[in-house]
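Listing S7. Sequence submitted for prediction.
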Amino acid sequence: MRRLALLTLLAAALAAGEILNASYDVARDVYRDLNAAFAKTAAGQGIVVRQSHDGAAKQARAVIEGLPADVVTMNSSHDIDQIARAGLIAADWRKRLPNNASPSYSLHVFVVRSGNPKQIRDWGDLLKPGVQIIAVNPKTGTNGKYTYLGLHAWASRQPGANDDSVRAALAAFYRNVLTLEKGGRAATTAFAQRELGDVLVTFESEALRIQQEFAGKVEIVWPSLSVRADNPVAWVDANVAKKNTLAAARAYLEFLYTKEAQEIFARHYMRPSDPQVLAAQAGRFAAVETVTVEEAFGSWEAAQKQHFDDGGWFDQLYGPR
């Protein structure tokens, strides 16, 4: 009841001319700058964009449970599909905006202490005894799902790989996890501010931000293989219809594909979907081989069912601590 009351108050606070963007944990800074830039455009005049941030999986559940978001800006299509299956977003949401409705993307890397004392170079080094890992819980944050899937994809490519060897790699990784945080920013706080662990596994965009903020204290290691993390967006049909905010929500999301917005994504170390902007900003990003979830696992739905649903591989391998 209390949660419902809070959601009702939030909805009432969002007056005409305001929209709410429900986004994932580590996207706070980029959307702060995107919102400011949007407000200066002709399409954004008089529109105030409010933000809500948490782990992506948690945000998707919040929208399904009544968070009155006009738009969602997530880090996997699975999170938006969950909302669509609840009847709040049209099933064809990918077709409504360019690039399958993903204006940017990222991938997973490793943040280590200065000098890389544990000599971490690739996923296999995270499996060694004595390495303490900070990561996100895949049950609460999609950041954590990408960590798991990235290791799975790497382990599957090793000589003689089979389900048993991949399971063994995953089990070794999670034995080394010092703490599983609910979202990417909480994981950053644990590693960079509280100085826990030897390595943080997180999005490249967050890693480069950490390197900038904690200059001289950390380094970034790019693995040999990573899973491409698209950042899809959608307006929430049920909510914009109820609040009469479709025009504002659509204008905001379309703005994310403009050259100005694409350059803001790049400045925040998120790889822009515009190939020309990406080429111009190539110096910011290391060349890394990536695979998509669809290529490596068939679909997000298949990956979720096998690995992250209750009783799936993650539950079997991690277990209670």
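Caption to Listing S7: primary sequence and predicted structure tokens for the chain studied. The longest strand covers residues 18-24. Residues 78 and 304 are 8 Å apart (CA to CA).
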